[in-house]
Amino acid sequence: MNADPQVMEYEPPTLSTDQSDLLAETIQLGLEARDYGLWAVQICDDVHGDESPFIGFVGLSVPIWDTAFTPCVEIGWRLSRPYWGFGYATEAAAQVFEYGFNVLRLDEILSLTSLLNSRSMAVMQRLGMTRNENEDFNHPNLDANDALCRHALFRMSGQLWARK
User: Fold this and answer.
1) Is 25 helix (H, G, I), strand (E, B) or coil?
2) Domain segments of the chain: what residues?
């Protein structure tokens, strides 16, 4: 998944097997240190039984860079390409919102992506997240001339989620 140029189009660069394994280890350590993180997503159905395929991850993280809206908790996702377009990211993200608001008692969860990433922005909209274009920002870890630099910021409050 992390070596697929289409999957990583808005999160470059692609990762080698070793880099991907290191990312998985980092994610696991984060899950052990907190009550949240990036959780593996599998398809659980009668067809796959005990052999449910890993299709990606969805979960919560804390950006480690400074902007006007940090510190914050961010929801994010990455799915393998064969599983795009089936609603898996939206379904899993809804469960993460439930956990974030009802178990962790967070007041707000943010999501962000490059303005070029229309697929992720569509997921954010399907989830009912709101965007104020005045909050769009240049990602501090990207060069200002990078086509991916400009990012959209979406918000979901616990109050708004409770009304859904």
Assistant:
1) helix
2) 17-162
Domain range 17-162, CATH class:
alpha beta
- Residue 161 to residues 57, 106, 107: CA-CA distances in angstroms? 21, 11, 10
Report how far residue 158's alpha carbon sits from residue 70's, in angstroms, rounded to the nearest whole number: 18
Buried b (16+ CB within 10 A) or exposed e, 53-87: eebbbbbbbebeeebeeeebbbbbbbbbeebeeee
Give me the long-range contacts of 144-149 (CB less than 8 A, separation at least 24).
147/114, 147/116, 148/10, 148/12, 148/114, 148/116, 149/114
Residue 106 CA to residue 85 CA, distance in Å, equals: 29
Instruction: Quote the radius of gyration of the chain (alpha carbons, Å).
Output: 16
146-160 pLDDT tens trace? 999 999 999 999 999
Q: Please give the average per-residue pLDDT across 106-126, as a whole number.
A: 98
Prediction pTM value: 0.91
Orientation angle between helical segments 88-98 and 118-126, nearest 10 degrees: 50
β-strand partners of 80 = none
Residue 144 pLDDT > 70, yes or no?
yes
Sign of CA dihedral 102, 72, 20, 126: positive
